[in-house]
Amino acid sequence: MSSTSPKYQLLLKTGKQLFWKHGISRVTVTEICRESKVSKMTFYRMFDSKVDLAKKALEADTKEAMQKFRDIMNQDIPFKEKIKQSAILKFEGTKDIKQELIMDIYKNPELGLQPYLEELSKKALAEIMGFYIQAQKDGEIRKDVNPAFILYFQNKMSEMLVDPALDGVYETPNDRIMELFNFFFYGLFPRE
Questions:
Q1: Can you give the three-state secondary structure of 69-125, one letter per residue?
Q2: Distances from the Cα of 88 to the Cαs of 20, 55, 103, in angstroms?
Q3: Residue 77: phi, psi to the nearest 5?
Q4: What mean pLDDT is reported for the chain?
Q5: CB 161: neighbour CB atoms within 10 A?
Q6: Which end of the chain is more exposed for a tag (fewer CB within 10 A), N or C?
Q7: Rounded-to-integer distance, Cα 75 and Cα 83, Å
Q8: Whose CA is closest to 184, among 86, 108, 39?
């Protein structure tokens, strides 16, 4: 069956929801089929295994995130706003991922997901880096900033958005987001 078939899409969506919440090891094909109301026979016509489904879910998620990123970068808005929107996009894309999935990807070599995700990420990061390099050439980013550092710092900002150590520091999640963006754009010193 095609990846555009409704049952394929339903299995993909259900698998993603379960994997993001419980990790891959703890979820069974039976649970995926029960939740999606699709037979095991249909599941196995579309996917070799739950790991195959997990790979397809990671790939679909990466493609969707990259399209959203491209849409942001192609807007006619200041580059500062593009960076802000892309950081929020990253936060939104990762906020529902639980520790179990991270452990399955990075600490369970039997699943083979870490090299797969690294390959997906490498392609996405190369494209993102291209946008930053172009913005630097256009004068929208300081010439003395290494674009690789921007990517690194954005990843750290996403981690800080969900860091429990900062939970009591801000009244609302939006306050935390604004503090991180202000620090990213202006640093410690008063704006001139």
A1: HHHHHCCCCCHHHHHHHHHHHHHHHHCCCCHHHHHHHHHCHHHCHHHHHHHHHHHHH
A2: 19, 24, 24
A3: -135, 165
A4: 88
A5: 19
A6: C
A7: 12
A8: 86
When pLDDT is averaged across residues 7-16 and rounded to a whole number, the result is 97
Do the Cβ atoms of 54 and 43 come closer than 8 Å?
A: no
Write down the pTM of the prediction: 0.79
Q: What is the DSSP string of 154-167?
A: HHHHHHHHT-GGGT
Q: Maximum distance among all alpha carbons in the chain? A: 65
pLDDT, tens digit, for every residue of 90-133?
A: 777 777 778 788 888 888 888 989 899 888 888 888 998 999 89
Which residue type does 183 have? Answer: F
Residue 58 and residue 38: Cα distance in Å, rounded? 21
171 DSSP 8-state letter: S
Q: Taking the CA atoms of the chain, what radius of gyration do you get in angstroms?
A: 19
Terminal Cα distance for the chain, rounded:
60
The pLDDT value recorded for residue 186 is 76
86's CB contacts (< 8 A; 6+ apart) are 69, 72, 73, 154
Task: Give the pLDDT confidence of 158-192 residue by residue, as tens digits.
Answer: 677 777 888 788 887 777 777 887 787 777 776 55
Residues sharing a CB contact under 8 Å with residue 82, sequence separation 6 or more, in sequence order: 72, 73, 75
SS3 188: coil
